[in-house]
Amino acid sequence: MASQLFAVSFDAIDPPLVARFWSGLLGWQVADDAPDGVELLPADDTGFRIRFHPTREQKAAQNRMHFDLTSSSLAEQQRTVARALELGGRHIDVGQLPDEEHVVLADPEGNEFCVIEPGNNFLADCGFIGALACDGSQEVGYFWSEALGWPLVWDQDQETAIRSPHGGPKITWGGPPLDQRVGTDRLRFGLAPAAPGDQQAEVDRLLALGATRIGTGHDEAGRVAMADPDGNEFSVLTPR
C-alpha cells in the first residue's frame, strides 16, 4: 500500500521566521503538535503539511524543488507578489526570460518560488499551491507515482507530473538536463506509512522501487532517511 505525502519539509536557519512568511502568504495555521521545528496545517485541499526544521547549514545553491502559486487574474498575481514582499520575500533572478509572465521570488532565507500568471491551463484546476515543481528525470517521476500511488497526469518529452486522486497540487519533474547537485537538499518529502507500525515495511517497499537508504539507523525523531533514484533526499516518518 502506498505511502502518504505527509509533509514537505524545509531546513531553515530560523524556522519560526520562515514559517511566519509561509503562514502569512498561504493563510495556513501553525500546528501545536509538531515533534520538532514548526509545522503549518493546510487550509485547503493541499493534502500535506509544511514543516520547518532547524539547521546550521547555509543555503548554497538553488533548491531542486519549489512551489508554483496560482493566480486567477493579473490583479490577484500582483496582490500575491505584494503580500510576499511585505512578509519579507524578495525578487530574484534564476535565469527567467524577459517575456515570461510568472514572477520569481524567494522567501526570507532564499527559498525560491513562482507566482504563476493567470490563464495557465496546466494548473487551471489546482488550488493556490498549484504545483511542486522539481528538477528531476522521467524515471524519478515514475518512482514517485508508484511510491505515493498518484497517477501520472503528464508524461511527454521526458517531463512528468503526478497528482493525488483527491486533488491538490501536482508534483512535476522537468526532465534533463538536471542541475548539478550542491550540498544537502533543503526541501524534501516526509512520507507517512499507510498503517501504524509499518515503517520498516514501507522502507523495504521503497527500496524495491529503486530508492536507497541514507545511513542505517533512525534520527532523533525516529525518521528513516532515504533518497529517490535521482538522489533527492526524503524521510519515512514514524506514525503519529
Automatic annotation (TrEMBL):
Report whether Lyase shows up as a keyword of the record.
Answer: yes
Any GO MF annotation of the entry: lyase activity
All residue ranges annotated as the VOC domain in the record: 125-239
Gene3D superfamilies associated with the record? 2,3-Dihydroxybiphenyl 1,2-Dioxygenase, domain 1
Q: Which SUPFAM superfamilies match?
A: Glyoxalase/Bleomycin resistance protein/Dihydroxybiphenyl dioxygenase
Source organism, top-level taxon: Bacteria
Keyword annotations: Lyase
Q: Name one Pfam family in it.
A: Glyoxalase_6
What is this protein's record name? Answer: Putative enzyme related to lactoylglutathione lyase
Top-down, what is the taxonomic lineage of the species of origin? Answer: Bacteria, Bacillati, Actinomycetota, Actinomycetes, Micromonosporales
